[in-house]
Amino acid sequence: MGRCWSEKGRVLYAIVIVLLLQVSYERVRAQREHTVVIGEQRSLLLLFQVLKAADDGPVGLCEVRRLLLEDVFFDESDPLIELLLLQDRLLELLLQLLVLLDVGHGVLAVLTVVVVVVVDVDVVDGDEIFAVGVNKRKQQQQAHSQTSLMTAITSVVIENGSYETRAGFSNDQLPQLVFSSLYSKDANGDIAVDTHDPNSELLTILNDGLVYNWEALEANWRYVYSKLKVDPSELPLVITEEIWNNKRNRTKLCELAFEKLGVPVFAIVKTPLAVTYGVGRSTSLVVDIGAATTSVTPVVEGTVLYKGAIHTRFAGEWLNLHVRNYLQHESTAPALEDQFKGSESYKRWKTSQVLNDFKETTLSVSPYPIVSSQTEFNISPKTYELSPGERVQVGKEQVLLCEPLFIPQNYKPGGVEIPQDALGLTELILSSLKKLEVSNETYFALLTNVVITGGTSLIPGLEQRLLSDLARFLPQYNIQSYSNPNVFERSSAVWLGASTLANMNAFEAAYIARDEFLERGPEIVSEKFK
């Protein structure tokens, strides 16, 4: 293959390709503003993908650039996009030739830029494009049905999580709204969203990740539309769901969307599929560690492998229980709940905020398993201010309090029964893989694309511990993971992925139009939302 693909060459080509990709984005932004769905806040993710692709040499860099172009833009038949893809094909051919000829990296980089400049041309009147070998396909611009137009129209995207709701438009780079999924009822029984009146009971919409309070969900969605200042009948609606959702719930979601809100077009996106596409992949092993549930879902070439999908309630709230017991034991103050005034549910909510803050600022995950809380080891203490005037010195519990996520049966809080065969985080992943019974190539593809997401996954050291555990059990595989270093984007990974999917041409088949639902009812729901 000629000259070795050195680290210097790898970095050089990564920089060249990122710059060329940015040039492509800017050209399209200038001529087709409505087609761009990527923003600067994803630049770190882009650089990460390009650097990984550089391991495969210059051809790998061309491939990732082409795939990113295809994923980012709505209409691949747009002549402008055709030009950019042709440019990539010519670039790839030239690079293959030059690598075979053993040309130095500096010469290759310069010739790469020259090729792009030569085949690139200006846009005439913002519509006419001239490029070598590209035939105009204006004759293909035909009238589309209601659903086929959806990828060219902005959609409202809503993610209802157990802890928080995120919402915005599909062409937003980040969700416009992030608010508590809890709601309250006043004395007249009216539902109040995103308000936490101390004297009202705070209630939930979801249980085990599934909707059970439909009146509250309707109020939640109407609140979103009011904040976004848009009428539900004006734009398509895209929501997310856990993969263990059921047919009955999906039908009720459609009834709410079409009959109560009157949306014109509606789609439901599987959470792990949204996460996968949100990080620029089509194959991944999604490990989602949220507030109420932890789930592991294999996705191969855009298809969820349900046989390997598994979830548990050993998640953020499970850790909160251990943190609460620890703080109560260490503190001389009254019980945490008694430090707040209001209804019982309001006190629990305020307490959960304290527990979450403790997790975020104090905890970290041990790089190796700690099978017993009696294990002694040295660690620098941390101080946590529990309340004004009261500080708690936290020693080895900084890491011990995370172990229940990995070994739940060894860390049983008082009064809680844990089955001896309960699966911790690492075992959950291994169980998912074992259930699959797929080819070695598929296992390899999944284990080199482990995507870690969810609010609880932000605890420092968790990703490293997970990789270490998996490497011990699966030494024959080269395990690679990805977790977004941006805290807000990782917490919003599901919403970002759903908005990305909503803007892709291939997603139009997932929509149901209002007329279709009114005519066919549950039948079309089963057909489209499997």
UniProtKB/TrEMBL annotation:
**Pfam families in alphabetical order:** Actin
Q: What is the name attached to this protein's record?
A: Actin-domain-containing protein
The signal sequence is 1-30
Q: Which family does it belong to?
A: Belongs to the actin family.
What are the alphabetically sorted keywords of the record?
A: Signal
PANTHER family membership = ACTIN (PTHR11937)
Organism name = Cyberlindnera jadinii (strain ATCC 18201 / CBS 1600 / BCRC 20928 / JCM 3617 / NBRC 0987 / NRRL Y-1542)
